[in-house]
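Journal club prep — side note

Before the paper discussion, L.F. wants everyone to see what a predicted structure for a comparable chain looks like in token form. Sequence:
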Amino acid sequence: MIKKIAFKTLGCRLNLFETDSLASEFIKKDYQTVDFAEKADIYVINTCTVTSMSDQKSRRAISQAKRKNDNGITIVTGCMATNYKEQLEKNEKIDYVIDNDHKTSVLSVAEAHFNGEIVSADNYEKNLFNYEPADQTFHTRSFIKIQDGCDNFCTFCIIPKVRGRASSRPVADVLTNVRKVVEFGFKEVIITGVNIGRYNHNNTDFESLVEQMLDIPGDFRIRISSIEPDGYTDSFFRLFKHPKLAPHMHICLQSGSEEILMKMRRMYTAKLFKEMASKLEELHPGFSLTTDVIVGFPSETEEQFQATVDLANTIGFGHIHTFKYSVRKGTRAERLPEQIDEKEKNRRGEIIRKLSEKTRLKYRNSFIGKQQKVLVQIIIENGFARGYGEHYIPVIIEKTGLTKNTFYNVDINGIIEKDEPILVGTLSN
């Protein structure tokens, strides 16, 4: 009888890549993937632990799996599985806890279980990059892992503990992965990792790797996921003139205060970030720049918070992901004095959220009267198509009969101002 498997992925795009690869391997073994809300024989929860909220979501997913099928097996992997391994192994709702280093062994663990074998954690495969290119995924885009781990050790961040030190995937493996997913038919490739700008393998840096990816033949585009502001040189910006490289980057600001950035142990200044944003806009007008901001970092004064507001206003981000500072045990920031009250964090977070809504709407309105190359992801209820343009903005194409996973040139003529403003357009002549 065909066994059913359900996946739940929390956190970053790196987790999405790893889940896609794992799911593809299960499908090749004739497992049937089902929605996580359905009854399944196996539940795989790829967890996140970057904030306390992430921990809560992961715990809820674990409880949900057991409620759906008490006789099913629950495998917990990912960053929370690394951070709280011993604690989770004592949880009766969990059958197997597999940390990040051994995540590629999920399939072999499940297979051994159903064969009645006792699996020791000592025998789990340890390989950060042994993920096969996924030909069947939960997305219309393909995520490509180029790197793992981080050496920055920001004072608020637990990632070096749960992902380890920086490690880069061999160039040949990355390029092979890209070629294969393009052959599979994927039209958008997203470069992901923990700190992708620090990629370096046998003297090939991030810029050189992207250049080689762009040289791969085929009708596809490349999008860069989250990157640190110090992860490239100015010469990297020239690559955005290439038609395959999407004019969009998510560059983490975290704070507009020089003092707070120093306390966070960030590797850049607010002044440098502002200059970088200005240069991008100068070289590539309309460039899509999105970011992360942390509010309520220990000792953050009202003046320092206002510096973040002012800088975000000046730059005019396409979107701002706002996070309340969350204490992570074992980090330096945990020991800092002057922890900010939760109510005050909420207030500051709401200010940034409203600012993000304002700048996002203004940015998206700037595309009315212009053209976007839209990759169709879904066909909506009225038969129209919806997808994303090269600037990573959602677009509805007012035309029926269009095909998923296909590029269309679209003239933007309006915007729907919902919680998530969506551009509207018609096919270009």
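L.F.'s comment for the group: The mean pLDDT is 93. Keep this in mind when we get to the figures.
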